[in-house]
Amino acid sequence: MPSFIDEVPIRIKAGHGGPGAVHFHKEKFVEFGGPDGGDGGDGGDVILIAESRIMTLEIYLPDRLYSAMDGEPGSGNERHGKNGEDLILKVPVGTQVLDAVTMELMYDFTKDEEIYKIAKGGRGGKGNTFFKSSTHQTPRFSQPGEDGDDFSVILQLKLLADIGIVGLPNAGKSTLLSKITHAHPKIAGYAFTTLSPNLGIVHRTNDMFRYTVADIPGIIEGASQGIGLGISFLKHIERVQGILFLFDGGNLNLVDELEMLRNELGTYNPILLEKPFLIVINKMDIWDDPGFTEEIKDTYQDLGEILFISADKELNLEYLLERIDKVFFPEQTKIIYEN
Ligand SMILES: Nc1nc2c(ncn2[C@@H]2O[C@H](COP(=O)(O)OP(=O)(O)OP(=O)(O)O)[C@@H](O)[C@H]2O)c(=O)[nH]1
Ligand SMILES: [Mg+2]
Question: What's the pLDDT tens digit per position in 161-170?
Answer without folding.
Answer: 899 999 999 9
